[in-house]
Amino acid sequence: MKILFLVYHGFSEYSGISKKIHYQVKGLRENGHDVRLCYYGFAENGHRCRYVDDTVLKDYGKGFLAGLRQRIGYGCIYDYCRREGIELVYARCFQNASPWLIRLFRQLKTAGIHAVTEIPTYPYDDEFKTFSRQQRWELKIDQMFRNRLYQYMDAMVTFSDACEIFGQRTINISNGVDFDTIPLLAPAARVAGAALHMIGVAEVHPWHAFDRVMAGMGEYQGSLPVYFHVVGGVHPNTMKYLFKPVIEKYGLQDRVIFHGQLFGEALDAVFSQCQFAIGSLGRHRSGITVIKTLKNREYATRGIPFIYSEQDSDFDQQPYVLKAPADESPIDIQQIIDFMAGFTMRPEEIRKTVEHLTWKIQMQKVVDAIVTKP
Question: What is the mean pLDDT of the segment spanning 16-21?
């Protein structure tokens, strides 16, 4: 099948989202599909451009008007799909529903081209509570038009258990993993009485609730040294209002280490120091109960035990997982220490439990659901 994977933004080598998109494209190609990646970015001359793979599809120019044109000028995508015989457009939601996007997908549907949109998190409205005024205004526009937009889809792809989203049927899949790019953990030796090193990897938002870990470290009364390694970008407001007060209250300056954004060998090196990983601990803050996060799957692929608070049917009963309550209580650090004291699973045993969660398998579920649509 000829597939256009449509993304409304560009890519970063540090971004987990960027990596995920490329893994999804790879998974589709591994199933024999002809996949072209359409995205938006900046050329070397500063022009705003829409690309298909490495080829400029549309050059919008520079300046304010160029930015406006790229938000309303989707005709080049429709023309490309017709010209190249695209059979399915797989779009990734960017909370950007608009009359111009509605027009694009109405044209695609009229032309007999299938379309789905992936909703990375659902529901997502509450995530915008801490965002800028401009981002909240953009959400209002999305809310005005999204139900109408998704009428023109074959389905919505979701990592939740929802049967319907914005009036459209769903295709329920799990976030996947790419075994070729995620190395098996070489864990730090688990020596009785040695320090516990924990790691949390994310583009950090309040719903990750890493502050609950920090508060738990502050409340911990034991003698074992405990360290928390935070890897990923942290917004200045999150640092100022969420993390800094807890760190200063408990004097954790030397035990919470912020590494910033890492990837490749630098990321692997931090993992090699750690015995336990931290997933999302505050999805309840954004109104989400059920979600299959990418991070849980990446931790399991590396072979490291971890904790999270949402409902995730792929991991809720696994022996290498601790479940935290979905509330604001500090994380019980002694519980983690006790858990690790008796933990004997090898990294390769943990990794084996997620072999069915490769992107090749998960992405083919989408194609199959479209082809066999009643």
Answer: 89
